[in-house]
Structure formats: structure tokens, C-alpha cells
Amino acid sequence: MTISTSSHGHGYQALLSYLNDSNTRLISRGLEKEGLRVTPDFSITQSDHPDALGHPLTHSSITTDYSEALLELITSVQTTRQGLISELEATHKFVLNNIGDESLWAGSMPCRLDGNDSIRIAEYGDSNIGQLKHVYRKGLDVRYGRIMQSIAGLHFNFSLSDEFWNTLKDAEKSPATLQEFKSQKYFALTRNFRRYSWLLMYLFGASPALDQSFLEGRKHDLERFDEKGTLYRPFATSLRMSDLGYSNNAQSSLNICFNTLENFTNTLTNAIHTSYPRYEEIGLHDSEGYTQLNTNVLQIENEYYSSIRPKRTTLSGEKPTAALNERGVEYVEVRCLDLNPYLPLGIDETQIAFVDAFLLFCLLEDSPVLSAEACEELEGNFSSVTTDGRRPNLTLKRLDEEISLTSWATEILSRINDYAALLDNTENTTLHQESIALQQAKVDDASLCPSARILEDMRTEQQSWLELAGSLSNQHKHTLTAATDMAAIQHEFERLAAQSHDNAEQIKQGDTVSFDKFLSDYVS
Predict the structure, then answer these.
(1) CB neighbours (10 Å) of residue 516?
(2) By Cβ atoms counted within 10 A, which residue in 110, 127, 442, 468 is the most buried?
């Protein structure tokens, strides 16, 4: 295949050179997939995290996110899409086979909730670190409420090989160390991701509707879809990522625009050491013990919510900001992907291929630093698309000028397709370019977006959001547990579960200080 290189800079040329010459896999990825355990009547479960799944504190691939009901299924780092999907599928099969008559909710917006207290805060045992994780979640409750924490999504971890980074560094004649160069470039990727992530919301947003129990007592501007309790916005793509989903007044003052590693870590460090008046009023204790870890803007760094995070694997007891400062950025975590309720795993290989190409585009295209005005503009675009993305003739802002979503999306997809062609060429496949064509079809015809399909199916079948998502949840459970490889999967995961219980007990036995002392040291 002949690939045009005329309109591209050093990054594209370096990628072309690397793919032609290297035998090393370019991309490593991991997935973290959240899903609510629900009862047969599509209510959030009140049961404990099942022992059969292992200990949530120490299991490497099955844990809980916020609540006892919100499972998080984690893959290892994989260099192939097929390996990633196979591992996530095996974990799903085991979980679904070991939760009795419950199922995993297929959608991002939750099943029926019965108020704040129907969402049980996750428990991690009596060890100091287990208690810390529980108290942190109690803090999220008193700050934002539990209902916001019942939303589920997909986190996509993405990194590139050191061999590629060296090729790119040489092409750009950068004097930086490899660690510095990688951090600079991952931050460049992050800035462009924030510029263009509205496109992911349009293409993959799958939460245009929700059950009214999610908004009990809250003001909102949603419309009533039916008489069964479904609320929606007619042109919404992702209510999960809109202001109705994850929103936080205290954090809005942080103004993190991802221009440099130093600025990013300093801002987060200040936030975890700066007290916030409303959290001071709540206090640290009530009659049942600790209410939050501290009264600061952020209890810990992970409380900061964004659609993408630069990350570094931490050592035992190490803070994320310290790890980043010490060893630089290792990978990025994309956090804005909704679960596609039509897919048994919430994602498929075609979407992974697109996200790969999209992230390479974000990395290798020009990525100027972001001014406060530019941050405001991109946040406005993102918000518009989550709530109104399929509205005909919707316009966004680009460098202070209006541009139609469809023309800008077509432009971006054309650029991404150049990277997709390189990936296809080296893998001897057409999957990446096919994935681009599928996305272009959605731009040309908004009814092909998953958010549109959900509303159309609810109308056609006269189903509420609960009925549609519940039906899909049951279908996926039936499909996955009917697999022929269940015995081998069951055996391996039983071993992992037993090991996790042993490891959790060892951690508890290894504690040498009181929880008060442990917490004081941790937040200092």
C-alpha cells in the first residue's frame, strides 16, 4: 500500500519509520470496566460482594469501584486487541456464573435506585488500607452523594513502546531525557484529547436517557420520555458525562489544563492540602466514626475527575503525584467512554481500533499549550455534545469561531484515517480504516449513533430505559454463561479468588499501627 506523507510532520514520519522497521508492538492497552450488580427486578443489589469473586482489596482483576454493587473488571496490559477482549470476556463469564440470579447492568446510567442509602458503600475489610478505601468512599458520599457514584463506564489505558518513543525523540531532535520527553508528549496527547474528545461523545455516547430515581429530589431540565419513569434529552449523547453525571463545584476552581507535568502535579498537591470550608463544616467524624479522610478540596488525588488522566504505576504507599514527579508519565487513562449496552462487554474490537487511531492522532498532531480561554472553549464543546450532540446543525467553537459539528468531525476523521492506514498496513488488516468509515457514517447520519439507537428502540418496543437495559443485561448474561469454556475459566478464577483472600489476610496481619496513625501518616 502506498501511504501519502505529504501533509504530516515529524510525528507521522517517526511512526511510519517505526512501523516499517520495528518488530516491537507499538501499543499496550488495558481496560477497566464497571458494572452494577442488579437483581432480577432490575434494582441495585443489597448483597455483599460475593466471596466467590475473591477479595476486592487484593484481587488483580475483580474488585469494586464505589459501592458493594459496582463491580470493576480489570484486564492486564495487553499488546493485542484480541488478547484484551478475550481476557475481559473470560472475567465476565466467571463473574456472571458466580453471582446467582443477579446480572451485570448493561448501561452506564444505573438501574432503579431507592434513594442514597440503597447504594451500599464498598467494604474492603479491617486492614488499615481497607479501612482507608472505605472512609474515602464515605467522604465521597458526604461531598457529592452516593447516587452520582452509581454511574458505570469504561476506562481505557493506553501507552506506547519505549522503542517508538526513542524513534520519535530522535526525529524531533529533542534534548530532553527519555522520561522527560515521554511526559511532555503524553501531556500533548492529553491536551489534544481534551480538544477533540467531544467527538468520542458523539460517536460512542450511549446514555441519552435515565431512570427518574437517579435524579430524585434534584433539579433538572430533562424531558419525560414515558409514563414509566424514563427521563431523557432528545439529542443527548452521554448524560453520564454531562453536568447531570459527574459534576463537582469544589473541583471547578482547580483549572487544570494539562500544560506541563509540574503544573499538573503542583495543582493536585495543593488541592489535597488545602481545606475547603463546606467540607470543614461536615467535619471528620460522626457517631459512626470517620466521615471523610480530611476536609481538603480533594481527599486524595484520585478524587479529581477528568475525562483523561496521565498516570504512573505507584509503589506501595506512594502517592500518584509523587510517582509522576519521580518517574514521569507511563500511560494515559481515558475515562469518558460509556458502556455500549448492545455489546456483551460494553466495548468491542472495532471500537478499540478506533480509539487506538484517535489517541495516536491526539499524540502526533500539533498540540499547543492551552490558555484559560481555550480550556473554557473545549469544555463548552464537550458539554454541548453530551447534552445536544445529535441536534441538526449543531455548531461548536474552534479558536473562537463557529463550526458545524459535522464538518469538523469529518475533518478530524480524515486526519485520523491517515494513522489508521499506517496501523492497518503494519498489521495486514483493514480494521482501523473500517472503524473510521463506521464513525463517518454516524457523522453523516446521526440515527446510527448508539445514543439514537437506544431512544429509537425504546420508542419502537415501547420500553422504558429500565426495560431496555434490563432486557439487554439478561441477554448478555445468557450469551456469556452459555460458553463452552466455562469449566477452565471457573477453575482458574477460583484459584485467583482464593489467593486474593489469603493476600488480604496477610495485609491485615502485617498492620503494625492503629488506623488513626495510618491515616495521619497517609494524608500528611
Answers:
(1) 10
(2) 110
